[in-house]
Amino acid sequence: MFDMDDTILSSIAATERVWGAWARRHGLDVEAFLPTIHGMRAIETMQRLNLPGLDLAAEVRAVERAEIEDLEGIEAIAGIAAFLHSLPADRWTIVTSASKELAARRLAAAGLPVPPLLVSCDDVRFGKPAPDGFPLAAERLGQPIEACLVFEDSAAGIQAAEAAGAAVVVINATHRHPMETPHPSIAGFETLQVKLAVDGGLDIVIALAINA
User: Fold this and answer.
1) Are residues 177 and 136 in the same domain?
2) Do residues 105 and 130 share a domain?
3) DSSP label at residue 13
């Protein structure tokens, strides 16, 4: 299972442009606010602020529309296209805090496929850091959550995967500061390979380059 934003594609610049403009309109400290938005649904990001008189539904729609229109700088994380291609099509999916429409637009901009079993913010009652999306994705894949591996980049996403009971690998390609985590952490997918295990599962291994 893959998170989308800043896990398999880099969208941090576009996201922060849109949310930075939104924060300025509402008189927020943009520098303090932006680190709090990553990995979470727009509605929960806004709810936490308790801004008086805020029309949540209208504001969420406006932010989503702005994100759909701003695709500048969105690109695939290194090695992800080849890695996804190496996976059986029915054994992977995306669990994202974005809507289905935004996910489709960003994946297309990055040149990546949209998996048929994608779980979006539209599919769950509570978004990350609540675990809801990951058990749903496991059910759709026909796998127990304990047998699933989650690739995540944000604290909210990691917390959600942990709560769901999945194993986690942290992608730090867009991290500006080191993240303390007990989970394996890698910058991209170039060194990862997939092997079919004897029990029918998938083994993810790191291929190390050896200089002769």
Assistant:
1) yes
2) yes
3) H
Q: Are residues 52 and 93 in the same domain?
A: no
- Residue 1 within a domain: no
Evaluate if residue 175 carries a pLDDT over 90: no
SS3 150: strand
Asked if residue 185 and residue 155 are part of one domain, the reply reads yes
pLDDT of the residue at 211? 41
Mean pLDDT over all residues of the chain? Answer: 93
Q: Tell whether the model's pLDDT for residue 209 goes beyond 80.
A: no
pLDDT tier, 48 (very low <50, low <70, confident <90, very high otherwise): very high
Q: Which two tokens stand for residue 79?
A: 């090695």
Residue listed under structure tokens 């403009």: 21
In a domain, 149, yes or no: yes
Say what the pLDDT of residue 208 is: 55
What is the rounded distance in angstroms from the CA atom of residue 191 to the CA atom of residue 14? 27
Identify the sign of the CA torsion 53, 57, 63, 66.
Answer: negative
Instruction: Tell me the chain's radius of gyration from C-alpha atoms.
Output: 17
What is the average per-residue pLDDT within 20-42?
95
Q: Is 139 in contact with 119 (CB distance < 8 Å)? A: no
Structural domain count of the chain? 2
Out of 48, 69, 90, a domain closes at: 69
* Cis bond upstream, residue 129 (ω within 30): yes
